[in-house]
Amino acid sequence: MSGRMVRKQGVPISMSERMLAKNGTQTSRKMFWASRDLRGDPFASTALDVVYNRGLGMIENASSLMNNERLGVNLMVDYVRWVDRDYADINLNNWRGF
Predict the structure, then answer these.
(1) Which of 22, 52, 68, 69 has its CA 20 to 30 A from that of 61?
(2) Considering its fold, how many domains does the chain have in total?
(3) pLDDT tens digits, 6-21
(4) By C-alpha distance, which of 90, 87, 89 is closest to 79?
């Protein structure tokens, strides 16, 4: 590991993604994760599998005891908050060296 420090990689929430999450519909959920995927969010492809009930997303949907659509919208809204909190952390200890 070298002593070089780099800012952590990530994709902040865009204004349009924020509006999609606020809308809170199934259509906005699909559009939100498609946008995140196009912008390089590493979590988005997994989320899209769940949204479209394909691949491993089928297993997740089948094992859920809750309303998957409502849960999916709630997770999208929570994800926006999580990413916002992550970007609000400007502590230099949160930089990663490699």
Answers:
(1) 22
(2) 1
(3) 555 678 999 999 999 9
(4) 87
